[in-house]
Hints:
The chain has helices at residues 2-19, 33-41, 46-49, 91-96, 98-109, 114-127; strands at 53-58, 61-66, 73-77, 85-89, 138-141, 146-150, 155-159, 162-165. By secondary structure, the protein is an alpha+beta fold. Strands 2-1-3-4-5-8 form a six-stranded mixed sheet. The protein has a two-stranded antiparallel sheet with strand order 6-7. A hairpin with a 4-residue loop joins strand 6 and strand 7. It is globular. The model is unreliable at 1-24 (pLDDT under 50).
Amino acid sequence: KTLSLLAFVLFIGSRGLFAAGPESPLLPEIYPRDKEVALALSAAPENLRAGAGVWALEQKGFVKVRESTNGFTCIVNRDHPLNQKPTCYDAEGTATILPKVVRVGELLMAGKPMAEIAADIREGFKSGKFISPRRPGIAYMLSGDIRNYNPQTGKVGSWPPHVMFY
Length: 166
């Protein structure tokens, strides 16, 4: 029995090691809607939250929960099944970066491997479906709950709150 239990524990542990690999069918975690919205909004400064648009992850990808009234849009970016990056984009980022983020979420929830997702996004930029920001902008990432998968170590770490300029 002890040997069987040890084999089971090793099997489960090895699944954790390999589940995060680049070809993994691992799906991002889906939160209850209220938790997802609160996490997305935690990226923005307090004064922008009430008017920010919000997207939430569901079974088939991201859905728009509410429209923006101030040009900012918040989302918990999942650019890897283990990543959780609450981000709030200004109007330029909403128009240019957010469509790519939404597409990545759709592909992740369909169980697509990271290499296939990267190829889809590259093709989207080549075809003009996605465009790079046309002017400098800002993306707030002020949440204390940022998780980022490191492919070099195979581990998920946290990042401190910060502001990104693009």
